[in-house]
């Protein structure tokens, strides 16, 4: 387990440093007036390529070990590794294309993440078989296409949820890392070594990327990284729930409630203001934390000051995320407890958002 994690981490970190040295040219095309920009300088936004490379390296190593020994702790065959790589590629390509050109329309990126979702449904026989609500579960059992449609929405949508929270050094990467580790833990608890190995490689590659991303911000995951995280974690969550009835469907929901709720709340917020949900703005929760909570950063160099303030933003959201990750990992079997924590998170999020908007942040939180 440790070898596979470290191999993926090393491969991702190595590819990342190559991109840092040779991919700065495209970063100059990233508009300085974009509302979601909170950094100074030309930073490569193609970290998704490093994350994919590290993950693919881990999957390949596990598949080679399985082939030569006719066994393996993680039971990852070459066919399984190729299937997961193929499923993630449409979304990854769409994200990287946007990172490089800044010209790929939202509708095309949605189509490409939808392509990954279709491939997952076809190649892995993916569907949402239950949601933990008796009436709805009966409907899913009687109308299998409904479960397939929900799986398509989940796999196509989660990449964009990760993209929304990808705004500061270490934020989306750490959310992805802890989600992968929590899913790995539960997969091992139910004896699914193959899924655990898939996720462990992704976790290792994410850790290797974070080595350069936090706190120094030398490379960003970009849309490619966010989409790759979203597709793999969404597919893994659905596979885990479908294969193992003892795992509550609300376990991955609580585990990923932060990016999911941020997405729904952002859509609601923009619609009430008469805006299109696809229009970027600077009013996401993490952006408000940056502007109204993180203070007391003084430095003569503007670049250093912005970097230091950027670095202090993510830990606030890490703590917020751990409020869901810990109970999700502890109560992964118990649906009603997980549902309760989801409701508590939603209420806490809205309350915190309104408090920040109204400048009522407690002094002890401001740093």
What does this structure look like?
With 367 residues, the protein is mostly helical. Helix content is 72%, strand content 0%. The model has no long low-confidence stretch (mean pLDDT 86).
Topology overview:
Layout: H1 2-22, H2 24-27, H3 47-69, H4 78-101, H5 106-124, H6 134-142, H7 144-165, H8 171-189, H9 193-213, H10 222-243, H11 250-255, H12 257-272, H13 285-292, H14 302-330, H15 335-357
* Unreliable residue runs: none
Question: With helices defined by DSSP (H or I, 4 residues minimum), what is the helix count?
Answer: 15
Summarize the helix and strand pattern as letters.
HHHHHHHHHHHHHHH
Structural class: mainly alpha
The coarse overall form would be: globular
Mean pLDDT: 86
- Rg calc: 20 Å
| Ends distance | 38 Å
Largest sheet geometry:
none
Strand content: under 5%
Number of distinct beta strands: 0
Give the helix proportion (percent range): over 70%
Summarize the entry for a quick read.
72% of the residues lie in helices and 0% in strands.
List its traits:
367 residues, mainly alpha, 0% strand
């Amino acid at each position: 387990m440790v070898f596979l994690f470290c191999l993926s981490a090393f491969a991702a970190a190595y590819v990342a440093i190559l991109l840092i040295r040779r991919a700065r040219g495209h970063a100059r095309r990233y508009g300085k007036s974009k509302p979601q920009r909170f950094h100074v300088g030309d930073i490569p936004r193609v970290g998704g390529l490093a994350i994919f490379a590290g993950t693919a390296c881990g999957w390949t190593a596990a598949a080679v070990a399985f082939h030569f020994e006719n066994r393996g702790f993680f039971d990852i065959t070459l066919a399984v590794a190729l299937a997961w790589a193929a499923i993630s590629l449409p979304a990854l390509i769409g994200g990287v294309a946007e990172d490089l050109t800044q010209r790929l329309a939202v509708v095309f990126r949605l189509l490409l993440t939808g392509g990954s979702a279709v491939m997952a449904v076809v190649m892995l026989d993916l569907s949402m078989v239950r949601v933990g609500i008796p009436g709805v579960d009966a409907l899913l059992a009687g109308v299998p296409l409904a479960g397939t449609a929900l799986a398509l929405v989940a796999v196509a949508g989660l990449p964009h949820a990760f993209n929304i929270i990808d705004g500061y050094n270490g934020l989306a990467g750490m959310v992805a890392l802890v989600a992968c580790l929590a899913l790995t833990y539960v997969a091992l608890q139910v004896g699914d070594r193959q899924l655990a190995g898939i996720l462990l490689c992704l976790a290792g590659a994410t850790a290797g990327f974070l080595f350069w991303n936090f706190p120094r911000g030398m490379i960003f995951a970009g849309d490619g990284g966010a989409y790759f995280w979203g597709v793999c974690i969404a597919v893994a969550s659905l596979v885990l729930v479908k294969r193992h009835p003892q795992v509550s469907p609300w376990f991955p929901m609580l585990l990923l409630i932060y990016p999911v709720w941020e997405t729904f709340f952002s859509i609601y917020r923009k619609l009430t203001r008469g805006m299109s949900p696809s229009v970027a703005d600077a009013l996401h929760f993490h952006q408000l934390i940056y502007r109204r909570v993180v203070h007391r950063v003084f430095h003569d160099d503007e670049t250093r000051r912005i970097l230091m303030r950027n670095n202090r933003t993510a830990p606030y959201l890490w703590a917020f995320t751990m409020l869901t990750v810990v109970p999700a990992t502890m109560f992964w079997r118990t649906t009603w407890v997980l549902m309760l924590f989801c409701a508590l998170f939603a209420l806490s999020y809205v309350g915190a958002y309104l408090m920040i908007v109204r400048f009522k942040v407690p002094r002890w939180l401001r740093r």
